[in-house]
Every structure is written in structure tokens, then in C-alpha cells.
Specification:
mainly alpha, single chain, about 280 residues
């Protein structure tokens, strides 16, 4: 069991390293000046997508052989991904304001209950399935999958920290803990509403053209690069991402407690062992 867990963890680490490099490598290659992000990432996006999906499936198969995950839980993952993908289809049919999307709240709640690795799979497969459903397949897709996976993984880490905290007994104690959980999840959802956009901007920002104080150029130092990106983000993305952040927090505030209770019951029924580390 320990060997399987170590191998599985190594796969998640490798997957994360690939994602990290995929976002950052344009800063070290002569891609700036490409006509668009489509041409700039037309060759690497399929490779990153295949690597991410393959590693995720391998990790899932390895954990399926151990005690951390069961066939029923894998089936539930598929159902949850399908349901969340439908939410994104509704979003396409009835566009929401700004950058709001209903898919992030379920990813956060599922990751919180079932752990970081399960949350990572939930995020990546949700974005993949929803892109296939809505026709949103493009060079941006693997980067969206990675960012959504990190959303679910961080929620799993939060769940791990909360479960390690002091236990309160009795109805009043459980109510207090549940309220604190929802508050923490709202804060996490708000932060990721901003952070998701900030991360996704990096996907195309090194290729962008525009005012000198908002674009990257080779040879720019780290401080100057961060300053330019900050100006770019404030000018182009902050308002859009704030809508997503507020929407995430509002959905979690409204539905977080009942959804967490329902998922907890499923987790206990399937005897799922949450594994937050990656």
C-alpha cells in the first residue's frame, strides 16, 4: 500500500511539474510576437493535454489497486464530473456576467471532502469533459485543466487541515465547525476566483503585444516582470475575475453546507480514505 501511494504521489508531482513548466516555458523561448495564443501554443497544447490525461489515468488506476479509492468512488467521480460539465453547458447557453462559472464551487467542495488527489482529478476531468460538451477545445484547454486541478487539490489540503484541527462534540460544536468550514471554503473560492484568472493570463501573456509597461520582453528582470504583469492584470482582468470570485463565494455560502454533508455521507459509505498530499 505504501509503495502504491508513493508511486501515485510521484505521478501527481510529475504532473504538477509538467504543468508548471508548461506555463513558464514561453518566458524562455522566442515565442513573443506570435500572431495569437493559438499559433503560439498550437504545437505544445496537444502534448501537454495528452501528458496530463495519461498521468491522471495512471494515478487513478494505481490508487484503484489499493485501499485509497474504490470502483464505486471512481464511478462517483464520473457522475460528479458529468454533472459539473452540464453546469458549464448551462453557462454557455445562458451566459453569466463577467468571469463567473458555476463549475468551480463543485470542484472545491468535492476536493474538500475527498482529498487533494481526488480534487485534482475532479478539476482536470471536469474541464476536459465540459470543453468537449461545449466545444471549448483549444490550446488553452490543458492550462485550464491544470488550473482547475490545482483548485481541487488546494481544497483537499484545506479539508485535511480542518480535519486535523480540534474536534468539537455535540450539536452546537458540530454547527460551529460546519459554519467555520463554509466560511473557509467561501474564502478559498474567492481567492481562486482571482487566482484562476491570474494563472490563466500567464498562458498567453508572454506572447502578448501592447504597451511596454504591460507586456513582457526578453531580458526583463523578475521585479520588473512582476510589475508589468501587475499593471496588465489590473487593466485587463481584475474586474472580470472579481465577478468569478464573488460568484464562487456566493455559491459556496448558499450550497456549501448541504453539499458537504451529502458528500461526507458518500465518503463514509464508500469507506474512502482522503489523501490530500500530492
Amino acid at each position: 500500500m505504501m509503495l502504491r501511494r508513493a508511486i501515485s504521489g510521484s505521478i501527481y508531482v510529475l504532473s504538477g511539474a509538467i504543468g508548471f513548466l508548461a506555463f513558464l516555458y514561453p518566458f524562455f523561448t522566442p515565442l513573443q510576437g506570435q500572431s495569437s495564443m493559438v499559433t503560439g501554443h498550437s504545437q505544445d497544447a496537444p502534448i501537454v493535454t495528452v501528458a496530463l490525461v495519461a498521468l491522471s489515468l495512471i494515478a487513478l488506476l494505481i490508487e484503484l489497486q489499493g485501499q485509497a479509492i474504490s470502483a464505486k468512488t471512481v464511478a462517483m467521480l464520473g457522475v460528479l464530473v458529468a454533472i459539473t460539465s452540464v453546469l458549464r453547458f448551462i453557462e454557455v447557453v445562458i451566459p453569466a456576467p463577467g468571469g463567473f462559472s458555476p463549475v468551480f464551487a463543485p470542484v472545491i467542495l468535492v476536493g474538500y471532502v475527498f482529498g487533494g488527489r481526488f480534487g485534482f482529478l475532479m478539476g482536470t476531468f471536469t474541464l476536459l469533459a465540459s470543453a468537449l460538451v461545449t466545444g471549448g477545445v483549444g490550446p488553452w484547454l490543458p492550462y485550464q485543466m491544470y488550473a482547475a486541478g490545482w483548485v481541487g487539490m488546494s481544497a483537499g489540503w484545506l479539508g485535511w487541515l480542518v480535519r486535523r484541527g480540534p474536534k468539537r462534540h455535540g450539536d452546537a460544536g458540530r454547527t460551529m465547525v460546519r459554519g467555520l468550514e463554509v466560511l473557509l471554503l467561501c474564502v478559498l473560492g474567492f481567492i481562486w476566483g482571482l487566482l484562476f484568472g491570474a494563472i490563466m493570463n500567464i498562458f498567453f501573456w508572454p506572447l502578448a503585444t501592447g504597451p511596454a509597461d504591460q507586456t513582457w520582453s526578453a531580458g526583463t528582470g523578475l521585479v520588473e516582470t512582476l510589475s508589468r504583469y501587475g499593471v496588465f492584470y489590473l487593466a485587463t482582468s481584475l474586474g472580470w475575475d472579481l465577478v468569478r470570485a464573488v460568484g464562487n463565494a456566493a455559491l459556496i455560502l448558499l450550497l456549501g453546507a448541504p453539499v458537504v454533508r451529502a458528500l461526507m455521507r458518500f465518503r463514509q459509505r464508500f469507506q474512502f480514505e482522503a489523501i490530500p498530499d500530492a
